[in-house]
Amino acid sequence: MKKLKKWFRYPVSAVSLVILFIISFYSIYKGADYQHQLYAEEIAQTGSQFAYNTVFYVKGEGTEWETVFQSLPVCVSVENISAYIDGDRSTSTIQILLPSQEEPKYPMISGSMYDGNTDPIVILGQGLQSLTYKKNGVVYFDIEGEPYRVIGYVGSKESDFFDSRRIVYRNRMGVRLQKVYDMEKGTGLLLKLSSDTEDTDALLEDLLEQKSFQEMSGRIESSGDSILPGNVVVNTDEDEKRTYILLAFLFCMANAVIVSELWLYERQKEIVIRVENGFSHGQIYCIMYRDILRLSFLSSAFVFVLQVFFEMMVQGRIVSIGRLCWNLATMLFFTLLLAGVVLIYPMWYLSKKTPQELFSGKGEV
Predict the structure, then answer these.
(1) N or C: which end of the chain has fewer CB within 10 A?
(2) Cβ neighbours of residue 43 under 8 Å, at least 6 residues apart?
(3) What pairs with residue 54 in β-bridges?
(4) pLDDT digit string (tens) for 58-84?
(5) Is 255 exposed, middle or buried (0-12, 13-18, 19+ CB in 10 A)?
């Protein structure tokens, strides 16, 4: 307690510094968190992506074209089916997996991607567990008012990239979702061919040249790379997060300049006394840096502990060790940096004034 009183012996400037440091460190924490999420999402996507991907629209009734695509040695999925999710009372995108010769690639955290039964099933992102319910010991998730048995969860400890996925098999859909699927055929289904071994672009080109396929009811509307709704990270989002980090850093620097003036004003007489007692500018800098560092460390520790507590206890998020270490290292770095930046102006100012000017009040900040 005595040490804290000593740290706050200039209460106005000390409290102002702590408040502004807390705001600054909160911005830094969120910025570091965003950067870690970007890195984690990149890693998560890398592990689930195929070497070859082709996206295109198919429009037409019937199932002949489905049979043709299912015969290809690739993974086939429909990416743009929108259905009503009873748990959150909203319409969301569902990925439909067609029976394929190549297995889909998802990071499973529990359960499996398929079973041998015939009832409607769904694989969910781990962030949707709160929308499920149990009945007779079995976990269900309602789509279009029909129960789907949950057989597995996909996700990553480091990223929320897969947390909102809803994956249903074409041959394991409920009656109502089947009707939605059939209606979407008339407006166009967004198909995705994926493979690690087969060139999907070449496969599609060969298929389009076949007369038997051209005579089918299914018709290719467009081909080429497309942005899949809810399934890719848009680059602009990454740019926005990096901009946020830069703005947070500049915000911290601006705060440091402002509060250093108030802090210096309250310490002028103390600095004069030290100078008159033979203290060099270097010694005074070390003493001032130590005092600022204490307040900086106190503020960063408060923000770090409070944010982690809020995420774990209030939001119920799982905070990974890797994310904690990254955020902690970033906070420590800026703790040392800000403490030094705050002293740039005071030390420049002191170098321009004599003790007599400071003591007489001519050295007003």
Answers:
(1) N
(2) 156, 158, 159
(3) 193
(4) 876 667 778 888 888 999 999 889 999
(5) buried
